[in-house]
Design brief:
eight-stranded mixed beta sheet; single chain; about 375 residues; alpha/beta; about 25% helix; six-stranded mixed beta sheet; about 25% strand; globular
């Protein structure tokens, strides 16, 4: 058991392993990552794997674009094949209001270097031939987006963090954080006590309880989301984009010879349950019938449930606590944490080192809620 550390990172998903990797790569000694279970065993392993820069919020666009660059070179550094498919994201739009919002988002994305564009329904159907264009007004598409394998990203970061001197402790649950006045002095785990003055909370849906250990309210709620996998699809286009019917949130992309698909469930209530159920299936089929009736003939062969980590404005919490010295946090990504993991690892590294990050992250501080400065994201899946 490690008895002391310069930095303790709590959480072994994409966010925690990316942060540990970037800290170790920067030469920070004695970085310790603690994960209460196995690496990627929380929300990361249950993600759909989508990666994109098509957002409505400038910060999210920048974090997404920066992460896409990192995913593209992941096989070289940190050095692992993540099965990246840059097939694009295709948002299908059925109301004038959504078309107007996405036109504004595309303009902002273009201003920031993202090659997204609007297209008509016929072109959208050429890209994603499983859809119906009935009632479709327009679509938004970016060829740089796509999907990859979340577990491979986590294990790639963890292995590289170890190579650069970090320690990764699995099956090591944090039970408390000791402080003296407003200063952290140690992290207490079921494997022993780690003396440290710095903690990074990257615990995803479980972050609120970690923040409470040092008196910091991280307003994160867990919300179950389900995914289904289908049998093989005959003549499935090899470049099928991640396709999202924005009005219903139905989405699908290629998964081997079949499809991975899902959508939100407005009847779901916050909680930590990750068992699967079929209560969402009638609504799923209704969305398929309207936008992608070809999917109705496919047999489901599997699926799973995972947790979104939701904040009040559906935007991330990234920063350093003002009430407790050297308590940093990166959580509450509300469904787009996996795709922002590489960039956020860089940002947290710079916050720790006192550097200026590549993007001003201060609007994502938890303090925005007490200041009534919410920062809503429109392009949610």
């Amino acid at each position: 058991m490690i008895r002391s550390a310069r930095v303790v990172v709590i959480g072994g998903g994409v966010m925690g392993t990316s942060i540990a990797y970037h800290l170790a790569l920067a030469g920070v000694e004695d970085v310790v990552l603690v994960e209460r279970d196995e690496l990627a065993s929380g929300s990361t392993s249950r993600a759909a794997g989508g990666v994109r820069a098509q957002f409505s919020d400038e910060l999210n666009i920048q974090l997404g674009a920066r992460s896409l660059e990192a995913f593209a070179r992941f096989k070289q550094e940190p050095g692992r094949d993540i099965d990246l498919h840059r097939v694009g994201y295709l948002f299908l739009l059925s109301t004038p209001e959504d078309v107007a919002r996405f036109e504004a988002s595309v303009q902002l994305q273009n201003d920031l270097g993202v090659p997204s564009r609007m297209m008509d329904p016929a072109e959208a159907q050429r890209l994603s031939p499983l859809i119906s264009t009935d009632g479709l007004l327009a679509a938004a598409y970016s060829p740089d987006d796509g999907h990859c394998t979340p577990e491979s990203v986590v294990h790639g970061y963890a292995a590289a963090a170890r190579r650069h001197g970090a320690t990764v402790l699995r099956n090591c649950a944090v039970t408390g954080i000791e402080t003296w006045r407003d200063t952290i002095t140690a992290v207490v785990t079921n494997q022993g006590r780690i003396v440290t003055d710095t903690v990074v909370c990257a615990a995803g849906a479980w972050s609120r309880s970690v923040g409470a250990m040092v008196g910091v309210d991280l307003p994160v709620e867990p919300l179950r989301r389900q995914i289904a996998v289908t049998e093989a699809v005959p003549d499935l286009p090899p470049k099928l984009p991640m396709t999202i019917d924005f009005s219903s949130s139905l989405y699908f992309h290629g998964e081997g010879p079949g499809l991975l698909l899902g959508m939100s469930d407005p009847d779901e209530r916050p909680g930590f349950a990750t068992d699967t159920h079929d209560r969402w299936i009638p609504r799923l089929y209704e969305a398929m019938e309207r936008r992608a009736p070809a999917l109705l003939d496919l047999r489901r062969t599997g699926g799973w449930a995972g947790l979104y980590e939701i904040t009040p404005d559906h935007n991330a919490l990234i920063g350093e606590a003002s009430s407790c010295s050297r308590f940093l946090y990166a959580t509450g990504f509300s469904g787009h944490g996996f795709l922002q993991g590489p960039a956020v690892g860089e940002v947290v590294r710079d916050l720790y080192l006192g550097r200026v990050p590549f993007v001003d992250i201060s609007p994502l501080s938890v303090d925005r809620f007490s200041a009534d400065a919410l920062r809503p994201e429109v392009n949610l899946v």
